[in-house]
Amino acid sequence: MIELKKAGIKDAGVLVKLIHELADYEKLAEQCVITEELMKEALRSKTARGLIAWQKDVAVGYAIYYITFSTFTGLPSLYLEDLYVKPEYRSQGIGTLFFVELAKIAKKRNCQRMDFVCLTWNTPSLDYYRSLGAVVLEDWHLVRMEKEAISSLHETIL
Questions:
Q1: Is the pLDDT score of 157 beyond 80?
Q2: Out of 62, 65, 84, 129, which one is annotated catalytic?
Protein backbone atom coordinates (compact mmCIF):
# COMPACT_ATOMS: atom_id res chain seq x y z
CA MET A 1 0.00 0.00 0.00
CA ILE A 2 1.25 3.50 -0.88
CA GLU A 3 1.06 6.26 1.70
CA LEU A 4 1.66 9.94 0.96
CA LYS A 5 3.29 11.95 3.73
CA LYS A 6 4.32 15.57 4.00
CA ALA A 7 8.07 15.92 3.67
CA GLY A 8 9.82 17.23 6.76
CA ILE A 9 13.35 18.47 7.27
CA LYS A 10 14.36 14.94 8.28
CA ASP A 11 13.35 13.79 4.76
CA ALA A 12 15.75 16.13 2.94
CA GLY A 13 18.22 13.35 2.09
CA VAL A 14 15.45 11.15 0.68
CA LEU A 15 14.19 14.02 -1.47
CA VAL A 16 17.65 14.87 -2.78
CA LYS A 17 18.23 11.25 -3.81
CA LEU A 18 14.91 11.19 -5.68
CA ILE A 19 15.59 14.59 -7.25
CA HIS A 20 18.87 13.27 -8.65
CA GLU A 21 17.00 10.25 -10.04
CA LEU A 22 14.56 12.61 -11.79
CA ALA A 23 17.46 14.63 -13.19
CA ASP A 24 18.96 11.44 -14.63
CA TYR A 25 15.60 10.48 -16.16
CA GLU A 26 15.24 13.93 -17.74
CA LYS A 27 18.82 13.80 -19.04
CA LEU A 28 19.68 16.86 -16.94
CA ALA A 29 21.97 15.33 -14.31
CA GLU A 30 24.75 17.87 -14.96
CA GLN A 31 22.36 20.67 -13.93
CA CYS A 32 21.28 19.03 -10.68
CA VAL A 33 23.46 20.43 -7.90
CA ILE A 34 21.05 20.35 -4.95
CA THR A 35 22.47 19.13 -1.65
CA GLU A 36 20.81 17.83 1.48
CA GLU A 37 21.65 21.08 3.28
CA LEU A 38 20.03 23.19 0.55
CA MET A 39 16.93 21.01 0.68
CA LYS A 40 16.76 21.27 4.47
CA GLU A 41 16.87 25.05 4.24
CA ALA A 42 14.19 25.12 1.53
CA LEU A 43 11.89 22.97 3.66
CA ARG A 44 12.71 24.88 6.84
CA SER A 45 11.91 28.25 5.23
CA LYS A 46 8.91 26.82 3.37
CA THR A 47 10.41 28.03 0.11
CA ALA A 48 9.56 24.49 -0.99
CA ARG A 49 7.03 22.06 0.36
CA GLY A 50 7.02 18.38 -0.40
CA LEU A 51 5.12 15.14 -0.40
CA ILE A 52 6.74 11.71 -0.45
CA ALA A 53 5.07 8.46 -1.53
CA TRP A 54 6.12 5.58 0.69
CA GLN A 55 5.64 1.86 0.26
CA LYS A 56 6.42 0.65 3.75
CA ASP A 57 9.84 2.22 4.37
CA VAL A 58 10.77 2.75 0.70
CA ALA A 59 10.36 6.20 -0.85
CA VAL A 60 8.91 5.58 -4.32
CA GLY A 61 8.17 9.13 -5.46
CA TYR A 62 7.87 12.75 -4.51
CA ALA A 63 6.25 16.05 -5.37
CA ILE A 64 7.76 19.45 -4.63
CA TYR A 65 5.50 22.49 -4.77
CA TYR A 66 5.17 26.05 -3.56
CA ILE A 67 2.52 28.74 -3.51
CA THR A 68 2.70 31.65 -5.96
CA PHE A 69 0.41 34.57 -6.71
CA SER A 70 -1.59 35.24 -9.87
CA THR A 71 -2.03 38.92 -10.66
CA PHE A 72 -4.77 38.09 -13.16
CA THR A 73 -6.93 36.29 -10.60
CA GLY A 74 -5.70 38.17 -7.53
CA LEU A 75 -5.41 34.85 -5.74
CA PRO A 76 -2.77 32.22 -4.98
CA SER A 77 -1.72 29.45 -7.32
CA LEU A 78 0.02 26.19 -6.55
CA TYR A 79 3.18 25.68 -8.58
CA LEU A 80 4.26 22.07 -8.94
CA GLU A 81 8.03 22.12 -9.37
CA ASP A 82 8.58 18.36 -9.62
CA LEU A 83 6.58 15.18 -9.61
CA TYR A 84 8.51 11.95 -9.88
CA VAL A 85 7.65 8.30 -9.42
CA LYS A 86 10.37 5.66 -9.69
CA PRO A 87 9.99 3.76 -12.98
CA GLU A 88 9.23 0.42 -11.33
CA TYR A 89 6.29 1.98 -9.45
CA ARG A 90 4.65 3.79 -12.39
CA SER A 91 1.19 2.91 -13.70
CA GLN A 92 0.00 2.06 -10.18
CA GLY A 93 -1.96 5.27 -9.56
CA ILE A 94 0.75 6.99 -7.52
CA GLY A 95 0.87 10.04 -9.78
CA THR A 96 -2.88 10.37 -9.42
CA LEU A 97 -2.56 10.13 -5.63
CA PHE A 98 -0.12 13.05 -5.77
CA PHE A 99 -2.43 15.13 -7.96
CA VAL A 100 -5.45 14.44 -5.75
CA GLU A 101 -3.48 15.50 -2.66
CA LEU A 102 -2.12 18.59 -4.43
CA ALA A 103 -5.66 19.49 -5.52
CA LYS A 104 -6.79 19.25 -1.88
CA ILE A 105 -3.94 21.54 -0.81
CA ALA A 106 -4.72 23.99 -3.62
CA LYS A 107 -8.43 24.04 -2.75
CA LYS A 108 -7.69 24.55 0.97
CA ARG A 109 -5.39 27.51 0.11
CA ASN A 110 -7.97 28.98 -2.30
CA CYS A 111 -5.65 28.52 -5.28
CA GLN A 112 -7.29 29.25 -8.60
CA ARG A 113 -4.96 27.03 -10.57
CA MET A 114 -2.04 24.62 -10.48
CA ASP A 115 0.84 25.34 -12.83
CA PHE A 116 3.73 23.10 -13.86
CA VAL A 117 6.00 22.47 -16.82
CA CYS A 118 6.83 19.31 -18.73
CA LEU A 119 9.60 18.61 -21.19
CA THR A 120 8.28 18.57 -24.75
CA TRP A 121 9.69 15.10 -25.44
CA ASN A 122 7.88 13.56 -22.45
CA THR A 123 4.70 12.63 -24.31
CA PRO A 124 3.58 9.96 -21.81
CA SER A 125 3.50 12.60 -19.06
CA LEU A 126 1.85 15.20 -21.31
CA ASP A 127 -0.85 12.70 -22.26
CA TYR A 128 -1.35 11.82 -18.59
CA TYR A 129 -1.68 15.47 -17.56
CA ARG A 130 -4.23 16.06 -20.32
CA SER A 131 -6.20 13.03 -19.07
CA LEU A 132 -6.44 14.77 -15.68
CA GLY A 133 -7.90 17.88 -17.31
CA ALA A 134 -4.70 19.91 -17.60
CA VAL A 135 -4.26 22.19 -20.60
CA VAL A 136 -0.87 22.42 -22.31
CA LEU A 137 -0.30 26.10 -23.08
CA GLU A 138 1.32 26.08 -26.51
CA ASP A 139 1.48 29.88 -26.74
CA TRP A 140 3.64 30.39 -23.64
CA HIS A 141 7.39 29.83 -23.30
CA LEU A 142 9.36 29.23 -20.15
CA VAL A 143 11.88 32.06 -19.88
CA ARG A 144 14.82 31.78 -17.51
CA MET A 145 17.66 34.00 -16.35
CA GLU A 146 20.45 32.01 -14.75
CA LYS A 147 22.84 33.22 -12.05
CA GLU A 148 25.37 34.67 -14.51
CA ALA A 149 22.74 36.74 -16.33
CA ILE A 150 21.32 37.98 -13.03
CA SER A 151 24.78 39.04 -11.84
CA SER A 152 25.53 40.72 -15.15
CA LEU A 153 22.25 42.62 -15.08
CA HIS A 154 22.80 43.65 -11.46
CA GLU A 155 26.29 44.92 -12.27
CA THR A 156 24.97 46.90 -15.26
CA ILE A 157 22.70 48.87 -12.95
CA LEU A 158 25.49 49.73 -10.53
A1: no
A2: 129
